[in-house]
Amino acid sequence: MRTRAAVSAVLASGGILIAGWQSGVHIADTSSSVASGAAGTTGATGAKALGTDGSSGTGTTGAAGTTGASAKAVGTYAGPVVQTRFGSVQVQISVRAGKITDVTALQLTDAERKSVQISNRAAPLLRDEVLQAQSADVQTISGATVTSDAYLNSLQAALDAANL
After folding, report:
1. Which residues, 6 or more positions from 31, have their beta carbon under 8 angstroms from its beta carbon?
2. CATH of the domain at 62
3. Looking at the 3D structure of the chain, how many domains does it have?
4. Which one of 62, 94, 115, 158 is most buried, by most CB atoms within 10 A?
C-alpha cells in the first residue's frame, strides 16, 4: 500500500510540473542589442530597437548631448518573441517624447483557429489598456491569459529598451 501511495505521489508531482511548464510563457532566445541614436544612447536587453524608418538597431533618444534615463525616448522598439504553447507573441511600441503613442502586435498566437480567435479578441483590448496606462501594468484579458502574459512580457522588454 505504501509503494502505491509513493508512486502515485511521484506521478502526481511530475504531472503538475509538466502542466506548469506547458502553461508557462517561454521567451525565445533573441540576441541582445543596443539601440543608439544620433542624439543619445539607450541600452536594450533582450529587445530589438527599430528606427522610425524600420531599420534594425537605430533608435533616437532625447535631445543632443543627453544620455540614458534622463533622455526622452523617441522611436520604435520591438520586444522579444515570446514562445507560448499556442504560438509566438511579439509586441512593438512607438514612443514620442517619452510617451507610448502606439502598440503593435507583430506576432500573435496562431497554433490553431481558436488561438487566432483569442488573439484577435485580446490584442485590441490590451493595446487600449497599455495606451491608457502608459505601462505594462495592466490586467490580463479573461480567457486569454497565456496570450496576455506573453504580450505583456514582450511589451515590458520593449519599454525597458525605450527606458520607459
Report:
1. 48
2. 3.90.1010
3. 1
4. 158
Residue 84 lies in a domain: yes
Whether 137 contacts 153, CB under 8 Å = no
Cα angle: 108, vertex 116, 46; to 5 degrees: 15
Question: Whole-model pTM above 0.85?
Answer: no
Which residues, at least 6 apart from 48, have a Cβ–Cβ distance to it below 8 Å? 30, 31, 33, 56, 57, 77, 78, 80, 161
Q: Is residue 34 domain-resident? A: yes
Per-residue pLDDT of the chain (164 residues; tens, 9 = 90+): 677 766 666 666 655 545 454 445 545 544 433 333 333 333 333 444 444 334 334 343 333 333 444 456 789 999 999 999 999 999 999 999 989 999 999 999 999 999 999 999 999 999 999 999 999 999 999 999 999 999 999 999 999 999 88
Other C-beta atoms lying within 10 Å of the C-beta of residue 132 = 10
- Separation of alpha carbons 143 and 109, rounded Å: 13
Q: Are 97 and 74 in contact (CB under 8 A)?
A: yes
Print the domain residue range for 99: 26-161
